[in-house]
User: Which sequence fits this backbone?
């Protein structure tokens, strides 16, 4: 029998504990001999990343057991923390010391030395060679030296760091190294301050001479983002370039003119923000190239190298898709399904068939998961794209005439993207009668270069205008109760949350996870990878200091009036706790209802199960306290003034 209960107070089987442990993401996957291995964060084990494989009984088993944790600290966001050889040797970066280790049948030995603050990431195993991006903080923690290095696998560099060969340096940042099949050339991605890789980066190619690359050429430079080189043969390179306005595949034969030709162009993006070193948007599988195409949602295609004929692959993922590995006409693909579960599939490129390697594992029935409804509203800078998730509960309806509360989610980055898949956090809310609107504001990827460049010089303006326009659209069409619309986001999304709260009153509550309140403090305190990010988002310092002051939410602390929940990690090196604490102090000085929670041992993004559970329940309790509904199963939250 269907119950009638107010929105927000609906009972739900989706507990915070169930949501925190549901279908964790795939953190890399590889063909290893006849096996398939993948990385998987384990929230119940303090968020460590385990490496697993499917056993003979079909169940997963650990290749890298506790307490080992395959996580890189390069660029703070890491990526590419493990790879493997066909003989079953696992190479990985251990989080606690950032050294590279080799593991065979549970026996672990170091490959790099314990020497100062030196980090490794972006591991590549190719034709018997182990490559890595090496980041050395020992001279100056704010400006580390970076290089692409070759690490000997015999363990000799564990005691003698000089055994590690530096192949190339000479840029502020390097990523995605690829050796030509004959080992004579190296291709890689490079960029320099003040640019970010999605603003201006180039692929470089150089001949390896006595173990070093001393000079290089590039198929394209200028105001373009060029990513992910892969060799088709000893002289022919594929890579991703957005010169057309969309990230598309290009082909280049080294030394020949014209330098490039388009490879199966499309009005969609094969590419994205290079936040982590393990990102991969396509792979070469025999005679075919398997690629992701994104235009709001993801789909996967197989492209015949000879003819360019493109066939869509019927794989369930529609968001967060990664081409993890390719080999002899097969591809490993990870991503999120419409139901919200994360999966890993093996694809046969010849016929496009696929089968699951790692099934999605949501501990609740599909009827509890909302399906995305694409939304587009007009904003001052053009259309704003979003995905709506209405309240979804098969056992409960709301009283006649009541409109639901909504939470507008703002992703971080701000150069990032959300696809049409309800996260566990979203399903936790919608099953309780709280709608969610996930917004890809101007600056987001997935809609072409022009869309993401809306934010150039306009951070704190366009993003704020876009989320306000999206909220007005919700209220105008009657989808949401205009008096119960909240806004929530983390990191750069937290900046937009705070900016929207001081810009007007459309949002009646806010939730900021490790959000930015003072742009100048961020520019002074944040890590090297993002140290000049604000040059493009706001302007260079000191010339643009007045803009930094004007756009910072803390500058307008007197405008805070809506209740605010602040969640923060104590070890956050990207947005230090001082940012959230300054907001807390400003709210307390004005008597604005608020709560501040500091999670010891957490960094930029929560990983521990207990933290994730507490944060989700705190957000729900906060919404109940502000919007006036009961929160069954969750302790009410007392707000400070």
Assistant:
């Amino acid at each position: 029998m269907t119950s009638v209960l107010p929105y927000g107070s609906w009972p739900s089987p989706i507990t915070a504990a169930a949501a925190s442990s549901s279908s964790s993401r795939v953190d890399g996957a590889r063909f290893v001999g006849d096996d398939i291995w993948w990385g998987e964060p384990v929230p119940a084990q303090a968020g460590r990343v385990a490496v697993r494989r499917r056993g003979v009984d079909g169940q997963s088993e650990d290749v890298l057991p506790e307490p080992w944790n395959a996580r890189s600290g390069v660029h703070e966001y890491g990526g590419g923390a493990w790879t493997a050889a066909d003989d079953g040797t696992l190479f990985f970066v251990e989080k606690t010391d950032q050294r590279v280790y080799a593991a065979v049948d549970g026996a672990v030995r170091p490959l790099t030395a314990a020497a100062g603050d030196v980090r490794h990431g972006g591991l590549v195993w190719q034709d018997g060679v182990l490559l890595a991006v090496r980041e050395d903080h020992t001279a100056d923690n704010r400006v580390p030296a970076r290089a692409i290095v070759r690490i000997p696998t015999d363990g000799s560099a564990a005691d003698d760091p000089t055994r590690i060969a530096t192949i190339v340096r000479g840029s502020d940042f390097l990523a995605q190294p690829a050796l030509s099949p004959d080992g004579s050339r190296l291709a890689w991605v490079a960029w320099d301050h003040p640019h970010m890789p999605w603003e201006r980066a180039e692929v470089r190619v150089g001949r390896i001479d006595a173990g070093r690359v001393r000079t290089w050429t590039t198929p394209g430079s200028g105001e373009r983002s060029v990513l992910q080189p892969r060799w088709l043969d000893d002289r022919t390179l594929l890579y991703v370039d957005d010169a057309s306005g969309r990230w598309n595949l290009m082909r280049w034969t080294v030394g020949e003119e014209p330098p490039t030709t388009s490879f199966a162009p499309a009005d969609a993006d094969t590419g994205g923000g290079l936040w982590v070193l393990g990102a991969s948007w396509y792979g070469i599988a025999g005679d075919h190239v398997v690629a992701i195409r994104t235009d709001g949602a993801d789909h996967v295609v197989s492209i015949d190298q000879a003819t360019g004929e493109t066939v869509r692959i019927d794989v369930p993922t529609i968001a967060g898709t990664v081409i993890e590995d390719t080999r002899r006409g097969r591809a490993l693909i990870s991503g999120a399904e419409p139901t919200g579960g994360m999966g890993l599939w093996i694809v046969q490129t010849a016929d496009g068939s696929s089968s699951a390697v790692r099934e999605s594992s949501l501990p609740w029935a599909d009827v509890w998961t909302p399906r995305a409804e694409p939304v587009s509203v007009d904003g001052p800078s053009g259309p704003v794209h979003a995905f709506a998730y209405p309240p979804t509960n098969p056992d409960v309806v709301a009283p006649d005439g009541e409109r639901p509360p909504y939470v507008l989610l703002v992703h971080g980055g701000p150069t990032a993207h959300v696809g049409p898949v309800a996260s566990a956090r979203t399903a936790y809310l919608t099953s309780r009668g709280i709608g969610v609107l996930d917004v890809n504001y101007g600056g987001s990827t997935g809609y072409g270069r022009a869309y993401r460049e809306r934010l150039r010089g306009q951070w704190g303006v366009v993003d704020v205008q876009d989320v306000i326009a999206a909220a007005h659209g919700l209220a105008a069409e009657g989808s949401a109760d205009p008096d119960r619309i909240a806004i929530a986001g983390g990191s750069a999304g937290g900046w937009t949350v705070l900016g929207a709260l001081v810009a007007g009153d459309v949002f009646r509550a806010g939730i900021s996870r490790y959000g930015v309140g003072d742009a100048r403090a961020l520019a002074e305190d944040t890590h090297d990878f993002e140290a000049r990010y604000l040059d493009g988002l706001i302007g260079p310092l000191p010339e643009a200091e007045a803009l930094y002051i004007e756009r910072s939410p803390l500058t307008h602390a007197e405008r805070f009036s809506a209740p605010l929940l602040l969640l923060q990690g104590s070890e956050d090196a990207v947005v230090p706790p001082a940012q959230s604490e300054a907001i807390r102090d400003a709210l307390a000085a004005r008597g604005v209802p608020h709560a501040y929670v500091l999670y010891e041992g957490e960094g930029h993004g929560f990983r521990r199960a207990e933290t994730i559970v507490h944060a989700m329940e705190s957000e729900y309790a906060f919404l109940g306290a502000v919007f006036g509904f009961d929160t069954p199963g969750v302790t009410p939250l007392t707000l400070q003034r």
